[in-house]
Amino acid sequence: MTPLVDGFGRVADDLRVSVTDRCNFRCTYCMPAGGLEWLPRSEVLTFEEITRIVGVFVGLGVRTVRLTGGEPLLRRDLHELVAQLSAAGVNDMSMTTNGFLLAAKAEALAAAGLRRINVSVDSLLRHRFAAMTRRDAFDAVMEGLRAAERAGMAPVKLNCVVIRGTNDDEIVDFARFARTTGYEARFIEYMPLDADEGWQRDQVVPSEEVLATVDRAYPLVATGTGIEPAQVYRFADGAPGSVGVIPSVTAPFCASCNRVRITADGQFRTCLFSLGETDLRGMLRAGAGDGEIAEAIRHAVAGKWAGHAIGAAGFTRPERSMSMIGG
Ligand code: SAM
Ligand code: SF4
Description:
The protein is of the alpha/beta class. The protein has 10 helices and 12 strands.
């Protein structure tokens, strides 16, 4: 099998699949206060359509699939999709979720083949969590984390979008939380994908600064796993847990990016910041065969651009915001 390779020699083998554009939170850095208009149900891929498309990607060498959204746990019976994808040959499946509905669903998801989970937690302070997500859901999310752990999903990772002047005073608290729970605290640089278009460059807290802040409190050692764009560190004193950073703005990993994405309405995107999409749903519903779909995917990947160039002159924001693309 020839792997999916773009014009710069990068192999695309990590697929993010958005299963819904709906969400039960309205995080300030992602969605407007009034919410977004959801896609009509008929436009959203069915589980069978998702499985068929992912099956084509598996045939093209993709083995790693991350379910995302919107909020993936809003999709009813998601464990059934997980089971279908496992049967289709996906052997490394993970999910990014806000965790609100996780407590009740973790066990069924793990039993169906979900191995790993990232839960978005931007503050360990209840009032700030509520302000950032526009939902008072801190306790439910903490319960979800514990349920994921009990269900054997490991390692549990926390995604924290660090925003200057909002939650950057909690960096050490997150590291301490990682040490006491064994979780990985992942600090993500704030990207210009908020629906309100309020992103300002000076709100981005550089990952280097995050690492220096943690290192002063708890010295860190690089792990050099290098499997993901995240740079991961363990604690020098041997405490459990770890710290990761995703420097998408200050040190983009575009040169080695292996990610591609499918939106909830079946549009294929070769970059978070892509300005164009390939309509796989349209092809599927028009009766295209797997070979034709594979060819369209190969063609799109071959045309993948070098990088997103946030901050450079001429950078253009994509029309869709993060909740519509899937993070
Ligand atoms: N609803 C799920 C959640 O919040 O985990 C999955 C979808 S969400 C769009 C995926 C990830 O994107 C989350 O970890 C979220 O924190 C991150 N995200 C959303 N908007 C972002 C932004 N403007 N910059 C950086 N990360 C962002
Ligand atoms: Fe919803 Fe996730 Fe976006 Fe927050 S980050 S609004 S939970 S999609």
